[in-house]
Each structure stands twice: as structure tokens, then as C-alpha cells.
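sorry for the late reply, my laptop died twice this morning and i had to redo everyting from scratch. anyway the thing you sent over, i finally got around to it. pasting the sequence first so we're on the same page, its 667 residues, then the predicted structure underneath. double check i copied it right bc i was rushing
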Amino acid sequence: MLPTDAVPHTDPVEPAGRIQLTDPVTLAGRTAPSRVLFGPHETNLGRRRSLSDRHVAYYRRRATGGAGLIVTETASVAADDWPYERAPLAADCLDGWRAVADACRPYGTLVLAGLGHAGGQGSSAYSQAVLRAPSRVADVVSRELPAELEHAELGTLVQDFAAAARLAADAGLDGVEIDAGQHSLLRQFLSGLTNLRSDDHGTDRSRLLREVLTAVRAAIGPGRVLGLRLCCDELAPWAGITPEQGAELAAGLAPSVDYLVVVRGSAMNLSATRPDGHTPPGFNLELCRTVRTAVAGAAPVALQGSVVETGQAQWALDDGAADLVEMTRAQIAEPDLVALLRAGHPERIRPCVLCNQRCRVRDNRNPIVSCIGEPASGHETEDQPVPGRDARPRDVLVVGAGPAGLEAARVLALRGHTVELAEQAAEPGGALRTAGALPGRERLALLADWLTAETRRLGVTLRTGVRLGSAQLDAARAAGRDVLLATGSVPGPHGFDLLGGIVVRPAELTADPTARSLPPGPVLVFDPIGDAVGVAVAELLAAAGRPTAIVTQDQVVGTQLALTGDLATANTRLQQAGVTLYKRRTVLELHDGHAVLEDVVTGRKEHVECTVLIDCGHRLPEQSLHRDHPGLPAAGDCVAPRTVHQAVLEGRRAALRLAAASEGAHR
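ok and here's the structure:
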């Protein structure tokens, strides 16, 4: 078997009769144009608890790109189930479902309604009602104690699923997908972790799910698709669903459904449900294969789990691990994934970097789903570069080939402008290259590679190792060229008194990942920001065999990683690697051989031995050219150092504004 992270994008030889990802598949008599699913996920695109015009545009965009099946954001079947503020409610989704179906129908995509109930994994914050669950078992995340569902309430719950499915059919959808996955009440009934009942729904834990499937099938009829998202491994073998139990369960349920999506995880391990780049793509391959073998053809089986490479997805079909492949994050990153693959251009597919920075949106800020590499995702009703070329092409010089400069050059070239991209470093990519050299963030370099390849494909002149000064900019402008600055950032001042010792910045370290150039002895990582950088730097040093400690003023290391789902696992990795954690502390002074730390709560000071300090503090805009040319458009870190997403978004917007200004000047 090929390792999951080593499967090529495409195979050089295609055997006769080989099933392609781009081939159609028939489910319940309805034909999907490809075997690629766009699965249900939180979007925060809703208006109150209904699907909005933003949902419609979002799903239409994936349909135009060739998605075979689209499962809309999971809608609660009962009003008292309100797991997050903008969670859809089936009773409020009729018009939205109908609009999505109408929008996707011209492209042949099958559209299904995701239906579920969060049970004890929900929240009472919005419903102001007690949570309902199989048993009185507090949720391990929220610690909220639910009420136990009474027998009569179970009958009502089954009717709620049936009513929601009937509504989806009335809306003209092609079917429904029932959620018995990681965040669902139905999984909670299947699991010994949460179902401690002694009645017939406890002695037979799959009974409720079977009742729901039977009622839903009756509600939608045989001519519509009934899918099931089933947790087949809770990663809690002491009491939860094991792969062996999951396979047996799937085999018993498969004859009742038209397809089955195999997932893993539970409330015990939320980071496993949508992991970041620390987990290899396609992590569910063997679990899916086990389930498909057990199902023995009773229903098509879909592979799910960070499948972001088309080569890996195709190999899963070839090797008999799956019949369909869910590629949700991959299609957030590249809506045209299937269309580009069908056209024979897999190299043009924008990569998903598995960072979770913009597509994981279930938090109290209610951010809109998006992607760091494709910021138009989730914003299809706005900020869309209009296809086509501008009537009057311009000659544009973009200074800086980091993510902002590369994206600006790409968009300008797409619109027919002549573009020169000048970069002082030896290779393009900027901060993406630095970040991509850190553990668990290697896929960020793929985005730099893609942006570079696209600019070259579009005819951009890329010059590296070139540092432009004010004189060159003046000459370019005098020659009638437009200039756009994307010069990135520089290290900010140290947040401590430097009285001796050696200070290194992360960019210097990633150029020497073995840390051989550092003097021997313990290393102290100062992380006043709490994002992925400090944690990854500490991991890099520990892996190189260096005695490593990390300092943060927060109660937990890497506090910003809560937004991407990596907080708990990051702290686990650090401790397993032997990294010493200095929490609630800041660095006051650095001396030869030691640093002085201060407890931010008590003010107590202590000396910590170190020969080198890695300063992961804030950076500042690089504005040497902007100071001499304050009127020039600028984008990315040279405006204010932030994230890759902001850099790409601002590079795109700056390019579009420049193009629009050029057009206006010629009218």
C-alpha cells in the first residue's frame, strides 16, 4: 500500500475500465456527474436559522466546478437543538433548499440536505433549553449535563427526522444525508461512551438509527437518495465505537441506504474530526477500506478525512478503498477542482494546505467560511474578480513576491496586463516559505509553489535576487508603468532588554532546521503571540535534539491554536517531545547564558538557563519604499503584518483596484 502522503496527483497510465473521479455515479436512480462529494460543514453563511443567498452562491460555485454531490450544511431537525448561532433549522430551510437545488440543477450536481441533531454536544446558549441525550453523561468539552431522552420523546425525534426529510423532498432536493457522525445525537446512541440506557434503545444501541432511516426512507420514497454519515471509530476503544464494531454496524445498515460516508472521532477527540497538517491527508483510508469490505457492495462507500490530493482520491478508487470521495476542504480551496481535473490540468488545482485558519468557523466570532488561498470562498456574492481581460492593458511592476505580491501579479496577468514581479530573495514565496519549513505546516509551501507556477503560466516576468530602490521606482513610473508594493515585513523590536546572549528569529532558524549553526546548550523560545509559529519552532528544536523550553504569558501555550482546533494536541506534542513549558511568564532580560523571566500574575522573577533565545514576537511593515512613495498602492504585510489570508486577499483587491483605476483613466 502507498503511504497516504506519497500518492501522486495523477497516474501516468490509466488501465482500461478504470473508474475515474470524474466519472458519473448513479444513486437511487439519480446520476451525479462525478464521484466527488462536497460534504456538510459549518459555514456561518445563514440568515438566522435559514439558508441564505450566500449559501446558494457558495454551493452553486462548487456545482459549476464539477462537484458530483453537494450535502448542504447540517440542519437541526428539532427547534430545541441549536448547536451554534447560525446553525440551520430544517423547518426554516424550505426556501433556501429550493434555491440551492435550482442553482445547482443546470450543472447536474445532486443536492442533498444534511439532517441531524447535536444532542449532548449541542449548546443551550441559544435555545435556552435543556440539552437532550441518550443518558445523563456530561459533554467532555462543554461539561454541560443533558437530560435523558424519555421513550416517548424518541418517537417524536424519529418523526422530526421524517418531517425534515419530507420538507427537503418538497424543496426539490435529490435526497438527504443523515448525520450519525462525530457531532451527532445518533452517534451518541451508538456509543457506550454516552448511551448507558437499560431499555431497548440501550441494549440495542443501533435501534434509534434504524428507526430514523426507516422513517426517512418512507418520507422521501425510493426515488430519492438516502445517505448516511456514520462514525466507525470513536478513537476511544475502552467504551466507544471501535473499527471492528463500526464495520459490523455499517454492514447491517448499508442495505437501508444509498451511500455511506465513513468518519471517525467523537467528543473525546474533536481535533481528530477535522485535523490540520499534523495529520497526513487521507487518514481514514484503512478505516474506509475495512468498512467497504464489510459492506460487501450493499451500498457505495465514500472516503472522508483530509482528502485534498486528487491523486490520492483516485488511488483510493483504484485500490478498492472507496467508491466515492469526499473532498470538502479541497473544494473550498479550489471550487474548480473537478473541472480542472476533467480538463487534464491537475497541476492548476489550488492546493488545500490543511491549516484550518479560515474554513473552521465554529466559534463565537461567527466568521464566514473561507480559505487562505482562495478568499472568494464564502464570499461568492462579493469580492469576485470578474473573468475576462481589461480593455486597456497596463504595464505593472509588483515589488515583492510573497503571497500578496504573487496573488496581485496573478490577478493582473489574468486580466491581460503585462506584469513584472521583482523579489529580493532567491526564491518567491516570502513568509509562506518560512512557515512551510516548520513541522505540521509543510503544505503552506505548496501554496507558494502554486502561486509561482500560475504567475509563470500567465506570462508574468519573475525576477528574483533583485532589490529595487527609489530610483528604480521613479524610473518605472516615469516610463508610464504602474507600481504596486508588496514588500512584506521586518522583525519588530525585542520585547525584552537585550543585555547579552544570542537572539535568533524564526526565519533564520527555518533556513537551518537542524539547528547546527546554533551554539550548543539549551534553547528558549519566546512566544508572545501564541499562534502556530512558537509551537512549531519549539517542536523543530526538540526534534533536532536540543533541550528546549517555551515561554508564554498565557495560561496555555499556543492559545490562538484554539481557533484551528490544534490547541490541545499541540500542547500534547510539546510535552511528549520533552519541551519545558513556562506559562504565565514573560521574558524581561536576556543575558549571556540565561534569561530573566517574570510571572505576569505574581511578578516573581526567575533565571532560566539558555544559550540562545528564539524571538517569535511581532513583525513590522517593511516600508522603506513606501516612505519615499506614499501614494503607491500597497498590500499584505507591508501594510500590517497579519496572516496569509489577509495577504492574499489584499493582493487580489489591490490588483483589482489598480486595474479599475487604469480603466477609468482611459475613459
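Residues 1-16 have pLDDT under 50 and may be disordered.
thats about all i looked at so far, will dig more tmrw
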